[in-house]
Amino acid sequence: MDKEWTLFVVDESPLVKNLDKAIEYIKGILLSKVVRGKKNDQVSIITCHDELIQVKPKRGRIHTSFSMPSYQLIQDLDSTLHVNHEPLEYDEKGLIEDGSLSETLLLAFEELSKSNDKPSQSATINIDKALDLLRDWKKGIPKIYKPTRTFNGELRLCCDLDSIDLENASFSNDREYNRHTDPISLVINVEGYPLIKEEKKPSAKHMGYASDEEPKSVKLLRDRIVKQRITPADEEIDTKKEDDREEKEDTDDIEIKYEEIPVDNESLMKTYRYGTSLIPLTSTFNELLKYPTYSGIDIRGFVKKDRLPSFFFMGEPTLLIGGEATRDRVAFAAMCQSLLDVDSVGIIRYTLRSSSGVFMGALIPFLVNAHITLDKGPDGLKREFDETKNQNVYGMALHMLPFKEDQKLPFLFNLIGVKENDDYLPSEAMLDQMDEFVDLMNIDDPKTEKPAIACFETHDFDSNLPLPLPNVESKLDNTWNKILHSRSPSIHIFNKILRDIVNEFNIKNQEEGESLGKAILNDPKKVDKVIKSSFDQLVESKDKLVVDLKQIDEERYNKISKSLATVLDNKLITEEAKSNGKKRVTDEMFVKDEGDLEEIDIDALLMY
Amino acid sequence: MSVVSKQYDIHEGIIFVIELTPELHAPASEGKSQLQIILENVSEVISELIITLPGTGIGCYLINYDGGQNDEIYPIFELQDLNLEMMKQLYQVLEDHVSGLNPLEKQFPIEHSKPLSATLFFHLRSLFYMAKTHKRTGRHYNLKKIFLFTNNDKPYNGNSQLRVPLKKTLADYNDVDITLIPFLLNKPSGVKFDKTEYSEILFYDKDACSMSIEEIRQRISRHKEIKRVYFTCPLKIANNLCISVKGYSMFYHETPRKIKFVVNEGSTFKDVETKSQFVDPTSGKEFSSEQLIKAYPLGADAYIPLNSEQVKTINRFNDIINIPSLEILGFRDISNWLPQYQFGKASFLSPNNYGDFTHSQRTFSCLLQSMTKKSKFAVLFGTLKNNAAPRLFGMIPSTLPQYESCNLPQGFFLIKLPYLDDVRQLPPKIAPVDADLDVLVSLFSNLVGKIHIKNGYQPQEYENPSLQWHFKMLRDDYLQLEHDIDISDPLEKQKYINSLDETKTKIMKLRDYVKETADDDDPSRLANTLKELNQELNKISNFDIIANKKPKTPTTVDPVPTDDDIINAWKAGTLNGFKVDQLRKYVRSRNNFLETASKKADLIANIDKYFQQKFKETKA
Description:
The structure holds two protein chains of two kinds. By secondary structure, chain A is of the alpha+beta class.
């Protein structure tokens, strides 16, 4: 589910208490949606006993019809939602007649029918608890993406791959080899979807800002240029470099200037680098360079799961499931089950999209714990939303494996051995102490037996609202559950601070005509203050950032830590000792960061 | 230059030095001499470095060469940054030998066996400073390695007057950061290299001595590799127990380099750069860097502008958990590792002896040995660099017995674990299987047991076919090598690729093996298991057909035109009669030959262009 339809029903009658908290909650939900960039979500608000309702019988009023959440909507809530002090009207039985909640809920269901979907979740929660959940970044709701199919093709075993590719390469349909009728090969249609993809925090965009004006959106223009040196007496400087060291130092002070000359498309020449040589690229040669590939997965063989190192895996895995036809689903499931039975994984050669390159990969079988809606009943009517259940479905994780060229194993230390009084290898006593520590810091769950087949849990809720999560019986052990239910601090703390800033600038009280952005720009100190205060709260609760997996009590942990630290004797080296240390010879290169650091083009630097 | 970019500024220079001896020319393995094998390895190293570290400098020199010159060192090619010219020279040397035109013993005759002199090693050292550096950057080599190949185990032949200066010169190499890596080869006759004299003048690691010619490949590969440091940080093992570690990048997916745009200026090419500027979309006026701000969108109608200092402050996780650092949260049995919960490429952890803590290597070794003994992996939390997002990691020892055949360095591999935010939703179509799988599972289990890769997956056995093709084509183009077949013809090209692609060959070998057993009646043979499996699956297909006999709703999708349809329409000039969707689907199905486009006219133009060309070729 990537598009969520949320409907708020707000009772404005004089009997309602804490309407301000309810408004705060709605604003918080809407704000969290806009901060996360939930562009597909739709929200609607329906009011009950609204003073603007004139027609009788009063049913409730659509305050906001289903639309994308916007900052404007959040801003308007304070002025448009408030308690209507007009007395309620009662019928002869003493029931509230006027703008009754039941009538309003009927209106809400009519509005909800626009979503063409059934309600997926309902829960009741105290408003204070709901607000607490909203404020806790550790309960933050991940951004949910629509699953996009990235592969739809064949998983093949023992097929004549050469003939298949020749058939793909030719314009002829004369098949010499037909894999679908070949009795000694196997073809299963499968589909692939992203399984894990690293989620990054929101990214900023550039805006142009001249003081006293509203910041504007900008357009990025790219021009191709060559730089022409325009410093006079170039050659003279070069000669001096060789002749006279002192004069060379003088010339270093001269600023070298370049003229930027635009290049038109006709003058551009495409080349490939081969070391420091450049090879011009003509259109014919470019055609020759193309390596034709055709989508498909071919099994190279099988290996025992524990013999294939997990650290070989590269990139983000893809989830493979059986194709639509019963034959494919059954064949795929049987293959998964047999691999699980013998604890093996598949080694494959694959191309997910034609012309996208060839890769080697591993297929890891596992069970997916899926929340599945049951089929329609015999009468063809839709079943109720609670007629869904968690079922195990077979899946395979496709991980990319490195080629020979991708593996860079340098020459490093020998670290195995025991030696008394040595600076580089531990003594027997040290090893014994470490063994004890490793045993005590065990986080395997001793109470639960390891499940025969581990299930992969995907999001076990499908609501973006910070409501208590449904209690799904997990097939995973407690430690994996704790790990996989933890939220990314960098995303959720960042989002929370953005929300704090917006709240601090008090959405309702902005000066007429001044945008939120302009207000923030005009008062950077206030922003600094919000960030500092939010951050100070986190510093105070620093342990909460880490997932607590320890199974031993703090006292015991401290005791074993102390004795281990004593025997291993690792001390902090002072700055003074460092500067007196031996000259450092290194054959190391720092490579490009994958995190949030400044981006440096390693290719450009290596190629110069 | 910024501080960060300085860290990248490494320029490796490798000199291969081969001491010619009569035994070096003698047949050693598969009819090849040791010299031929060494030169073939040098050629292979160049081909690898062109892909992985194209800025490296390589030189190849001979000593004891009777070239009629007084120089003690003879260059096959001088030390210089990798280029096609050196490739050509080496190719020519080996080609002349293999073709019998000019064997290596004639190309490189031996002067006479004489002891190694200190002067020779002094000359070798000076090669790094005299080398031609790249014209534009003018960078000197700051990482210098000499690979010395010899089977002469008497470098000073017992002469102590030669030994002392030799030892001193080689010791001086350390002061100028030159690493000499000896390849002390056993003689082809099988006589082991006597390391006595070398151990007097040189400190070297154990695996250098008495090596067979077949072992040099792996040793070159390890020593040529630059240690790609990805991060350095403390590792907190327990309270009051921290060590310093380094993280290396050991797996990096190589792809062909990007196209480089240049302008032809007669004899030289001038690099073309890209200049970016931000402008007002309405007025076209350029914004200066001072006028640019960064803002986070808040829906479609608002934004939150933050300056770089404010963003930096929000990312100040190091204030909270004293990071960049890693902290061990606990240990688990390796059988509990679930590979479906990992992503990204692993970093390799090694002790950092120049870090902030004493005895890091000893404690690291202690932890590694203990975890290996107990078959454990660790769960860690932390961040690897300043401003990087904190994460959970799994840490697996490379020394576990099951990974022994992988021949990995000793240390830990650090693997990213996902947060809930990183796990994607399941596809809506996912459905359980409501069928009895027993028979099929048993047949599959039979297959899995038989198609078993004995050595597991060894990356060094799998070359990337598309990458190799790219660089082969570039090299062949420069060396003007002619191919026996016409690779401009798609079918011929595919046949040629089929013969080169080793990943395919491996899969075809499996098929050939199955085919061999196809006529055997034994039901346990692979071919028979596959036949039985297909029969079982066909029953399900037939059942599907019967069950889905309901009339289908007529489809409104237009069929994808066949090749014949397109060719006939092209001849008749009626390509316009197809719908855009039909043309697009056709072009996509032939995307190895035809370029796709968004407009119908462009699609037709691309098809027309292709057939025009084919027509001309056929006519010619």
